[in-house]
Amino acid sequence: MKKFMVAVVLAFFLMASTSVWAAKPYKIGALFSITGPTSFIGEPERNTLVMLVDEINKAGGINGHPVKLVVYDTEGEETNTVKKVTKLIVQDKVLAIIGPSRTGTTLAVIPFVERYKVPLISCAAGIKIVEPVKPWVFKTAQSDRLAVKKIYEYCQANGLKKVAIITVSNGFGQSGREELKSLAKNYGIEIVADELYGPKDSDMTPQLTRIRAKNPDAVICWGTNPGPAIVAKNMKQLGMKQQLFMSHGVASKKFIELAGDAAEGIILPAGKILVADQLPDDDPQKKLLLDYIAKYKARFGKEPSAFGGHAYDAFLLLKAALEKAGADRAKIREALENTRGIVGIHGVFNMSLTDHNGLDEKTAFVLIRIQNGDWQLMK
């Protein structure tokens, strides 16, 4: 009888220890620009998500369910992204999708996730992703509106009243350009030049020559690599001494590498991850940031970028939603919309019926100056 009871107890514990893997997986999809011109964005996003999923599965999954991750490379291209999102929804039948990496690719897939009613947490910045609010679409990247406010606050405080803007002619650049133009008057700023460049342009000297003729107090460039690095180099070659601002679209060491010594002195709004070790100890995000940096570096041999943090936050939000909602897309969507007080890499998230980004300018951005080839937190 004793042997029988021991066998029963052992069987119970064995069943309990393997129950995680007996449960049906929570399948989530991801769309990142892992290769192509914007691979510097998508690669750290993919790496971060893989790391977090491995970590959660080793800890027993979510609600006893292992997480199955399906990742597709969009190559940063809209048509390819649409094909991949359709595959995730129709063939893979994922519960939710994280990504895409870019504003343009995100805007391209929104009609599909809305039609099929699949929660999407984008890692891109464009304000149009969540404004107007779309029921099934959320995002973790700080909105370009908050970034523009951060730059304009600095300009206002330092007497920079005449500003020239040069923006890339894609979804991210167009969104930033609209915010730069619409918010200028609120800060007493006059836009004296408004120039565009193509994503594949290799020389912005003509646009910058026209800007120089307007004699602005500052120049604001809005884009992602490699264009902004070319703008920085061309300005130096033309002997332009105006303060150059960049958007958060260059918030990775790749920009400093591409721009070289032309990056020196540039100011940009960015997430706190770039200067985590410079934050005060009472900052609510500091511990999470340092922990993420250490884990990423240990696994991949290099520090994560701000872009990896977008994927981190997306998984953090989705994990919390899955814990509440289980394998029900509609309930996941509802849980995401009711996110409150989640401390992430890029701020404290408080979603609502009218706000599917959930970040405010107090926690989302700090101003950073590039000094001696590295990031320096501006006080």
TrEMBL record:
It comes from the Bacteria. Residues 25-358 form the Leucine-binding protein domain. GO terms for biological process: amino acid transport. Keywords: Amino-acid transport, Receptor, Signal, Transport. Pfam families: Peripla_BP_6 (PF13458). SUPFAM superfamilies: Periplasmic binding protein-like I (SSF53822). The keyword Transport applies. Residues 1-22 form the signal peptide. The keyword Nucleotidyltransferase does not apply. Belongs to the leucine-binding protein family. PANTHER family: BLR7848 PROTEIN, LEUCINE-SPECIFIC-BINDING PROTEIN. This is Extracellular ligand-binding receptor. It comes from Thermodesulfatator indicus (strain DSM 15286 / JCM 11887 / CIR29812).
